[in-house]
Model the fold of this input.
Amino acid sequence: MKYGIILLLFIGLSQLHAQDNISKKRIVPGELWNDSRGNPINAHGGGVLFYNEIYYWYGTHKTPGLSETNHADGGIHCYASNDLTIWYDMGRVLYLNDDERHDLFNECNFDRPKVIFNAKTGNFVAFFKLYLKGHGSETGYVGVAVSKSPLGPFNYSHKFLGGNSPNGSGDFAMFQEENGDLYHLTVRKPDKAFVVGKMNDEYLMPEGKYLVCQGILEKTEAPAIVKRNGVYHLLASGSSGWSPNAARYYTSTSLTGPWEYHGNPCSGTNSGNGLGSDKTYGGQSTFILKVHGHTNAYVAMFDINKPENPYESLHIWLPVDIRDNKFYIQWLDNWDLDIFK
Ligand code: DGJ
Done:
């Protein structure tokens, strides 16, 4: 059944794709990005899963017209693409609810979802930053939801406190090794140290102790991580709420470090808002996407957060330039995937 849906989706995407206008295939960072039906892509603080030749973009659904303080978060929205430029709306794959006693009551704070496929269990596992209703951000949970299909529905399973801390943790990245081992890298609360812990085989709970990642500056948020030729590359931000700050970039041959700090990998200026690399073009990192079918092809994904109306938040996708095995990100007004050829 699951494979039937995916096959149909793949055929459907290919046919629709063939009819699409070639001009749509340019990525325009920092401008409104519409899905194939002309609606703004409503997936914020998200990430991309590549599964069976299809890319799935998952992010937080934001309710139009509501601010962050008025609980704009509305669960996980999913889009699918086979070319990374034209995205088909697959709908919401996880909803919040109106039960005040439930962890996912619609007044919780639900941020930065990431979905990972567990080949051992056949489950798609969604992780998200979860602050319970009325509890502020002093204690941060990781929420976990599970689905048998990339298209959901994701059923809420449980929450856990990361970092072996009673206050849990904040922004995070999930990093999956080639052998399937999964790691939770996060900023621990309350001391804001950057830590890493291994998840159990089911990807449901951390197992064992979290360790501090040596060499990572305190208050490093918005982490995104990939591994290339045995080296981990970590892109992140500083800590200034919803306001942009300068990006941070580190490399290491071990997740626990020592991590080498390379400063800000960004350069250039967003011609739309005039913001340069000191403010990450107005954005904050959320994910590094590996482009399949190419070697050394990575896309850095950022959000331009608009806390007054996050539905209008914008996406910045920029290609990663690799020189001397280091990642660099240069502002481009528009670009296409031929850049990786
Ligand atoms: C910083 C995080 O990186 C954002 O995703 C968001 O949670 C803000 N904090 C909220 O202040």
